[in-house]
Each structure stands twice: as structure tokens, then as C-alpha cells.
Design goal:
This protein is 60% helix and 12% strand. The chain is of the alpha+beta class and 300 residues long. The protein folds into two domains: 232 residues, CorA soluble domain-like (Beta Polymerase, domain 2, 2-Layer Sandwich); 63 residues, Magnesium transport protein CorA, transmembrane region (Methane Monooxygenase Hydroxylase, Chain G, domain 1, Up-down Bundle), CATH 1.20.58. Strands 1-2-6-5-4-3 form a six-stranded mixed β-sheet, sandwiched between helices. The longest helix has 63 residues. The radius of gyration is 34 Å and the shape is rod-shaped. The N and C termini lie far apart (75 Å).
Length: 300
């Protein structure tokens, strides 16, 4: 579906928004505005990462916006984000997206109706800024999730199956961080020499802030995973330690019982009247000796 957000009259440019496009619609627009076939094909790929490409007659960008309705176990770029392809020239801007992009409607209503976006570059900057702002929501959610798992690991029952949750948390942080990293060219290439330099500085500052936040979230998630594995290893070691102590106590006792359980015919102790209590006394002495030795070593 092709929507004409802005016509050249009374404005100085066209803004064409293409929602859930088919090849015929794109081919028509590509022929009219001289768009390269390779760029058009990139705009149709649903899993394409952000990119920035400056060509002779226009600039081509791909943005990825965070999708708030994704599943709790979503952990890929396509599941977590939606794509917006943007062609921008001196007198036109074309936006292409498969899923509904409410931020484009909001930019149109809030800025264009008020006459704030006077050039395609202004519209482009507003779109980039709105796309970056969609990552504020996952910052809050992921921070809350990290705090939840920290409390679960340190203060509550660690026997709960939390490793799966930590895995998806790490995956989401890493995917969004990677999307922001490859979006650097888009933000960096916004021309600060234009009249909209105040907007460009705001977009750059927003990008730096969000990149720093997700770097911090990634570091915290990795630390949390390491702590979880260390605690699990410590609990395993404690369990092995207890079992080892028990085995040390019972190993000599088992040895003594094994000897006198062989039932050989010529064993003089079997005819001895005090043999039975003597074996018990020996076993008790061995047990007490091991206990005293452990106490001196401070292993108990």
C-alpha cells in the first residue's frame, strides 16, 4: 500500500510511505525516482541488518526498530525488531516497511502538520531519533530482569531453573547491542552542518547513551551468568566435600567388615569369645581418630 504523506506542493519535497509492499509497487516507485535494483532488493529482505549507503542521487538506509509485542523467548534480530528502509534525496523521502510502523504516523502528525519538518533531512533525522527511542523500553525491561535474576541467585532458592531465563536475557541484550553497533554509520553520517544541527546532536547523544546502556547491560548479564555458574560449582563442590567426608569415615569400616565377612575356615578371631566386641572397639577407635584428624585440619 502506497501512502503519500507529503506532496511537493505546498512542501518542497515528497514523502512516500510504502506499507507491506509488493514488487510491482516498488518497481513503479524505483523507476520514477531512479532507485537501484540492489537497494530495492535490500529493502525487501526482512532480516537485513541496519546499513547506510550514500549513492549518487540518493542515500539509502535501513533502520531496525524494537518491536514491543515480541515473545518473551524471542532472541533473533527478526523476532525482536522490525525493519524500515529509507530512500532520501534532495526532493523526496521514501519509507518502506512490512509491519505497521506507528512512529511514522506519529512523526507525520506531530511534526509535518506543524510545519517543523521542512526538508527530507529533517524527516530522516526525526525517523532515526524515533527509531532509537524505541530501545528505551527494552532497557527498562532488561534492567528489571537482571535485577530479578540477581535477587533469585543471591537471595532465593537457587534450585529453580533460571538458566533458561538467563540465556534468553543474554541473547536479547546481545542482539539489540549488535543492532545498535551496526547502526553507527546511520547516526554518524547525519550531516551536522545542516540547519538541523541541534537535532543531529540530540540523535548522536541519544545513540551514545543507549549504546552505553546496552554495553552495561551486556556486561552485567555476563557477570550474572558467571556468578550463577560459580555458585552452582561451589554448591557441587560442597556436596562432593560432604560425600567425601562420609566416604572417608566408612571406607576403613567397610574394609574391616569385608575382611571378617570372607568366612575362611582358618580365621582364629572367629573362635575368640571377645572377637565381636573387639572389632566394634577397633571400628569406634578408627572413627574417632578420623574425626580428630579432620578437626585438626579444620575440615569439619
Amino acid at each position: 500500500m502506497i501512502r503519500n504523506f507529503v506532496n511537493k506542493s505546498p512542501h518542497t519535497y515528497h514523502w512516500i510511505d510504502i506499507y507491506n509492499p509488493d514488487k510491482n509497487e516498488l518497481q513503479e516507485i524505483a523507476n520514477k525516482y531512479g532507485l537501484l535494483e540492489q537497494s530495492v532488493q535490500d529493502s525487501l529482505q526482512p532480516d537485513h541488518l541496519p546499513k547506510y549507503e550514500r549513492l549518487k542521487y540518493y542515500t539509502f538506509s535501513i533502520l531496525r526498530i524494537y518491536s514491543s509485542d515480541n515473545d518473551i523467548e524471542a532472541d533473533t534480530v527478526q523476532e525482536l525488531t522490525d525493519k524500515i528502509a529509507i530512500f532520501i534525496g534532495d526532493q523526496f523521502i521514501i519509507t518502506i516497511h512490512r509491519n505497521k510502523a506507528e512512529l511514522l504516523d506519529r512523526i507525520y502528525q506531530e511534526n509535518l502538520n506543524n510545519g517543523d519538518c521542512k526538508t527530507p533531512l529533517h524527516v530522516y533525522i526525526e525517523i532515526v531519533r524515533a527509531a532509537l527511542l524505541t530501545y528505551d523500553e527494552p532497557i527498562k525491561k532488561l534492567t528489571h530482569s537482571i535485577e530479578y535474576y540477581e535477587e533469585l541467585i543471591f537471595l532465593k532458592d537457587q534450585r529453580k531453573p533460571i538458566l533458561k531465563g538467563l540465556y534468553f536475557l543474554k541473547r536479547k541484550v546481545d542482539v539489540i547491542r549488535r543492532v545498535l553497533m551496526v547502526s553507527y554509520d546511520i547516526v554518524d553520517q547525519i550531516d551536522p552542518e545542516e540547519n538541523s544541527n541541534a537535532y543531529t546532536r540530540d540523535v548522536r547523544d541519544l545513540y551514545v547513551k543507549q549504546q552505553s546502556m546496552f554495553d552495561s547491560l551486556s556486561e552485567n548479564t555476563n557477570h550474572l551468568l558467571n556468578i550463577y555458574f560459580n555458585i552452582a560449582a561451589q554448591k557441587t563442590n560442597e556436596t562432593i566435600r560432604v560425600l567425601t567426608i562420609f566416604s572417608v569415615f566408612f571406607l576403613p569400616l567397610t574394609f574391616i567388615v569385608g575382611i571378617y565377612g570372607m568366612n575362611f575356615e582358618f580365621m582364629p578371631e572367629l573362635k575368640w569369645k571377645l572377637g565381636y566386641p573387639a572389632v566394634y572397639i577397633v571400628m569406634a577407635v578408627v572413627t574417632v581418630s578420623i574425626y580428630i584428624w579432620f578437626k585438626r585440619k579444620k575440615w569439619l
